[in-house]
Amino acid sequence: MLVLTHSDELNRTYGGENGGPPVTEPDSTSERQGPVSDMTGCSSWSTGFKETRSTLVCTGARTITLTSAVSTTDWVKSTTSRLEEMKYSDVHLQKMSGGTEEQSGFDQSRGNRDRRENTEGQEPSDGTVHFSESRGDGGKGGTISVDPSLRPTITAWEAGWNVTNAIQGIFVLGLPFALLQSGYMGLVLLVLSAWVCNYTGRILVTCLYEEEPSGMSKVRVRQSYQDIVEACCKGFWSSWSGVAGCVVNVAQVMELLMTCTLYLVVSTSLMSDCLSGTAVPRSVCSLVSLLFLLPCLLLTDLRPVSVLSLFCSLAHILISLMVMLYCLSRSSTWSWFTLSLSVDPEKFLVSVGVIIFSYTSQIFLAPLEGSMEDRGQFNAMLAWTHGAACVMKTMFSLLAVLTWGPETSEVITDNLPFDLRPLVNLCLLAKALLSYPLPFYSAAEILQSWLLTDPAALRYSKHRSGGVSCSALLVRGALLTTSLLVPRFSLLMGLTGSVTGSAMTLILPCLFHLRLHWGRLTLRDRLIDVGILSLGVVCSLSGVICSVKRLFNLGVET
């Protein structure tokens, strides 16, 4: 059953036009108010908001409501037309009923009440999609309402800064060494990896949507990685869909926890280097870094995270410029013979993993796209951020390898002169601390929505109170403490990351795309998905083998 409710249809019904039945004088006040009361909640509108149009799609026990905003020009035209029709309707009712004052007073009070309800219960948002999911259980089931408009939205620029924060992380410092190990093929990998990660990010977000029966538009019916996994399991392993969702949540939290751990370890190391002349213990530096990160416990939406990501990106640009300018100053010593066409297979596989995973942002994309004011700009934002990152990483890595050649260190800052290194380390410290909030916020959101309560109710309570509940604060505190203790198991976490990282970035997005959109994919799209999926499996296996070898060598040494 498909019910389309539009403002123009409501106006025609209210005005009694378009061949509708004539309005007759009711016998009583209640009968005279009946048709007007029925309109309440269906055509309530307010001049302070853009007009919205709702589509109700009912299939069995599932109901999805889509509400989309209308452009300002169309809204003005529609509003003018509505005012004329309502004026004509009021005059028509007055002539036929004879109760002019009573009916007019009632209509005015009804309109005022509708305006108050509309003002209190809605927020203007272009392209906002409202979902109403109801499950029928013989009349006993409840209704779960998810209203994404309750969550503060971010612009495409703010989303871009968050993506830039993710793909321009601390891993960039190891790219010159990875390029040295992979030779000229590494230059191709730097460009190809940007395209691959941009592609998997786009298809992952595509899996959040389903096409309407008309095929003219798409509706966002899923909100997270977990929802996509559960949708893919339906029809094959329906009884295991919940378990699969839990496994994906665990993998996401582990991946984000490792990222948080990396930033905390790097911050401690950089602070220790900056204070090396004062003989400050490393444990004190770790505690100071933790104190700087305590405000992350109070983050409740992506807007402050986006601001921190902006400053993080500015710090990264400053670091890259300082290193590249120094390399350009030594251009007379460059040697193109440093890069070779023949590479060691094992070193090449390690370099592939380092380069590809320096572009990973897929784990953040679902909530970022869902929080955007204009979701139509998501693909363009993703393309621009990955394109800019590709240019910056390629120039940064190539100039460093040409400058230092075979002496290029695993962390490029170790090659810098001593007079420049303190300034770069200070900027890196700021970058590491500013990079921490994004993965921490994402991990906290996953844990809260998974362990505490319904995600919609959780977002609504945060929007209303503007704070963090005690239970949410407990989860965030446990997460922060865990990231402080995890470095004791760095090799084990590296082994796990080889699986979760490649799965989240390359394997799962392609599997989801093939499973949910197989019938709409061309042969070219299917081949691309299969190729990227195979690349993800190779990266995962090579990472596991290298990590196991390191664990084995460590055991032999001890």
Automatic annotation (TrEMBL):
Recorded topology in the membrane: Multi-pass membrane protein
Catalytic reactions on record: glycine(out) + n H(+)(in) = glycine(in) + n H(+)(out); beta-alanine(out) + n H(+)(in) = beta-alanine(in) + n H(+)(out); 4-aminobutanoate(out) + n H(+)(in) = 4-aminobutanoate(in) + n H(+)(out)
A GO MF term: L-amino acid transmembrane transporter activity
Disordered: region residues: 1-44, 95-145
Main location: membrane
Residue spans crossing the bilayer: 170-196, 279-300, 307-328, 348-368, 380-403, 492-514, 526-552
Keywords: Cytoplasmic vesicle, Membrane, Neurotransmitter transport, Transmembrane, Transmembrane helix, Transport
UniProt subcellular location: Cytoplasmic vesicle membrane; Presynapse
Matches recorded under InterPro entries: AA_transpt_TM
Family per similarity comment: Belongs to the amino acid/polyamine transporter 2 family.
Record protein name field: Vesicular inhibitory amino acid transporter
